[in-house]
Amino acid sequence: MPEVLVAECPECGAEIEVTDVIEGEIIECPDCGVELEVRSLNPFVLELAPQEEEDWGE
Amino acid sequence: MSTDRLSVSIVGASGYTGGELLRLLLGHPNIEIKQVTSERNAGRYVHFVHPNLRGHTRLKFTSASELQPCDLLFLCLPHGQAQTRIDDFAALAPRIIDLSADFRLRDPTLYERWYGRPHAAPEWLDRFVYGLPELHRDEIRSASYVSGVGCNATATTLALWPLFQADLVDRDRDVIIEVKVGSSEGGNSPSEASHHPERSGVVRSFAPTGHRHTAEVIQALSRTGQVPPIHLSATAVELVRGVLATGHAFLKDRGLTERDLWKAYRAAYRDEPFVRIVKERQGIYRYPEPKIVAGSNHADVGFELDPETGRVVALCAIDNLMKGAAGTAVQCMNLMCGLPETRGLEFTGLHPV
Amino acid sequence: MSTDRLSVSIVGASGYTGGELLRLLLGHPNIEIKQVTSERNAGRYVHFVHPNLRGHTRLKFTSASELQPCDLLFLCLPHGQAQTRIDDFAALAPRIIDLSADFRLRDPTLYERWYGRPHAAPEWLDRFVYGLPELHRDEIRSASYVSGVGCNATATTLALWPLFQADLVDRDRDVIIEVKVGSSEGGNSPSEASHHPERSGVVRSFAPTGHRHTAEVIQALSRTGQVPPIHLSATAVELVRGVLATGHAFLKDRGLTERDLWKAYRAAYRDEPFVRIVKERQGIYRYPEPKIVAGSNHADVGFELDPETGRVVALCAIDNLMKGAAGTAVQCMNLMCGLPETRGLEFTGLHPV
Q1: What is the full DSSP assignment across C144-194?
Q2: Which of A11, B9, B310, C250 could cross-link to B251 by cystine, CB 3.0-4.6 Å?
Q3: Contacts 24+ apart (CB under 8 A), C124-129
Q4: Has residue C210 got a pLDDT over 90?
């Protein structure tokens, strides 16, 4: 069973569980959909990935 | 009647709510539909009134005068009727779920103030439990008599509930809620205002003040302490099914952040089978959207914080015929009868739609 | 992988058809979804593309390059791709259902005429069965490779089929069919014509002639003998899901009455689980109505005879994403895998909607 890494989403605080990720990989928070960058594996740290705000322009 | 299946009847099954209830019960494996009544349509096949049910049932409407005892009775009568006939109905079934407004409010004086006349059976009021499982699950499990919920009240209550439960709201400042609603809320009897050329494409302020569901919202939120002034307005929009409630409340502590709000909403709804928190940074559907939940029992809830002013915008989208009426009623039936709460309510809703 | 459940994957699951298929398979008790692919969305949760599925699955899209063997593979790729990759896909699964137009036509020259370029894998054409169970049920049961159906072709074919099967039509007179269609037929990639301010409220003649689905209709009706000239026109209307086909054909025998037509339609569809004959003297929905079947796998079929001229108006309403695509595909899967044909396709559709 691959090791399950757990961390909190910095944006919404959701508990995020992942297996087989590498440093620098971009993953998505299942609750708020924000993109997160895997800063380190041990300890498992996630940070908001740089992301430009989509504008609907309505 | 096979022993393991519950015999269930619907009184007043020719309306939109009764028809939605019939659709759900037809798809429910533990239910056997005994009778469905309609005085106007007695003797007719149900699918001539509910066309989507063609090919799914050979049931015919009967008159309420022919009602026989059953395990559970749903009442889908126009407001005012259930309270005058409750004793007759109670003689027919040990469990009753009334989808009208007759038994929603616990306080008879509140009922008289909002509905303009004294309640016909006040002694029954405290024998009914308010049928919103997200707030009253345990009471409903052991209840014999459960009231339905108001659709606009449900959307409003579910939007604001986490903020009040976590006591984050300044209870001295007014809370304003605007509900945008679909045309099916008016039921299936036509009027000049619902005539297609007049109703199509409107953004119509049809109840800017004095909306009856306010009483239910106050009753629900008062479980968390003093309730600030609640002001409801309704606007009809180009939609058949659906309600979007947009609530405006003010935080007590200006230092709170979005993460604190996430925590409050997750604490309230993490284990709720039908409530989904929808607040996304990107994509098309970033906040709750009524058409996405149409036909499902979902209540999609979201929020946004204005750090400048401490104003929280609380959002909830539901299908007024499902989470706002028949879906929640079936959810209550499942709880009252010891069945899995989501049984018969698994439909995800459609997209695109 | 539990033995009794079939492992199924979807290639190209981020479009509307792929998403609808995913919704149906998530609700199908005998299916275990193995992989769903999307090159553009690889690694993303499916509910960020299909919002109605939030809370129903934690699946993520993968790239097609990571596809593993499974029991049955659905292909929901843009037209032209399946035919160039069929050998790779065939190596992954003993059964394939391709929802694109690539393998619908048996005759490669017909394909080239209607789709404007030679077929990339003509040797596969006669290994695929046309996936319309109402016409090919037995062949589909024993097939390994089944094509999807065109939505407009399906509505047109099902409207006219009983008249041709009973050989009532004058095969020397032109048959005209007008299909009124919703916007989801165009898929989820935006264009200037699908921009809301331009698309909303249209009654737009977007394909008055040369509609590609004509070939499928000719292929289907030719099973009953010589096919008269078939002329298809499509008009886009204010609708997201739904097709209404209105066919105009002429009877050979002017002495025929409505009862004879009832007999022909009943003979064709009496035992069909998803086809309903809708022709009523009174009520709101007297003929087939697309919005009433939205989300369901129903094909509602109706007709009217003009005794003065011998013209028969043949009608069929379907949901282009369901009976016109994903619903019929699941129906075929059930047949191919020996499951009850209606399994996972019980949704009745909504009313009002």
Answers
A1: SEEE---HHHHHHHHHHHHHHHTT-B-TTS-EEEEEEE-GGGG-SS--TTT
A2: B310
A3: C124/C83, C124/C86, C128/C98, C128/C103, C128/C104
A4: no
Closest by CA to B222, choosing from B160, B270, B272, B268, is B160
CA distance B129 to C70: 50
Query: What is the C-alpha to C-alpha distance for residues C51 and C19, in angstroms, rounded to an integer?
Result: 10
Coil/strand/helix, residue B335:
helix
Of A11, A31, A34, the CB nearest to B277: A31
**Distance from C-alpha of C127 to C-alpha of C9, rounded to nearest angstrom:** 21
pLDDT of residue A53: 63
Specify whether domain B152-320 bears CATH 3.40.50.1820: no
User: Residue C1: its pLDDT value, please?
Assistant: 41
Q: Is the pLDDT of residue B1 over 50?
A: no
Closest chain C CA to residue B272: C55
Chains contacting C with at least 3 CB pairs below 8 Å? A, B
Instruction: Classify strands C175-181 and C230-236 as parallel, antiparallel or unpaired.
Output: parallel
Q: At what angle do helices C214-221 and C151-165 cross, to 10 degrees?
A: 30
Q: How far is the C-alpha of A29 from the C-alpha of A6, rounded, in Å?
A: 12
Cβ-count burial of A48 within 10 angstroms (0-12 exposed, 13-18 middle, 19+ buried)?
Answer: middle
Rounded CA-CA distance C207/C235 in Å is 7
Q: B244 Cβ partners below 8 Å, 6+ apart? A: B155, B179, B180, B288, B289, B290, B315, B316, B317
**B169 pairs with which residues across the strands?**
B251
pLDDT score recorded for residue C3: 52
CA B330, B332, B338 angle in degrees (round to 5)?
A: 100
Amino acid at B299: A
**Secondary structure of residue C75 in the 3-state scheme:** strand
Contact B350 C55 (CB under 8 A): no
Instruction: Tokens for C169, please give them.
Output: 């039509």
B242 DSSP assignment: -
Cβ C274 vs Cβ C345: under 8 Å: yes
Per residue in B207-261, pLDDT tens? 888 788 999 999 999 999 999 999 999 999 999 999 999 999 999 999 999 999 9
Distance from CA of B2 to the nearest CA of C (A): 23
φ and ψ at B142, to 5 degrees? -100, 10
Mean pLDDT, residues B78-85 taken together: 96
Instruction: Please give the structure tokens belonging to residue C154.
Output: 């399906």
Give me the sign of the Cα torsion angle B40, B44, B45, B47. negative
Q: Which residues pair with A38 in a beta bridge?
A: A46
- Here the tokens at position B228 are 């600030």
Written as six digits, the tokens of B170 are 């300044």
Cα–Cα distance measured from residue B24 to residue B74, given in angstroms and rounded to the nearest whole number: 13
Q: What are the extents of the domains in chain C? A: 6-149+323-336, 152-320
Angle between helices B151-165 and B214-221 (to 10 degrees): 30
* Global pTM value: 0.95
Put simply, whether B257 touches A (Cβ < 8 Å) is no
The chains in contact with chain B, meaning 3 or more Cβ pairs closer than 8 Å, are A, C
CATH number for the segment(s) B6-149+323-336: 3.40.50.720
Task: Kindly list the residues from chain C whose CB atom is less than 8 angstroms away from the CB atom of residue B353.
Answer: 240-241, 294-295
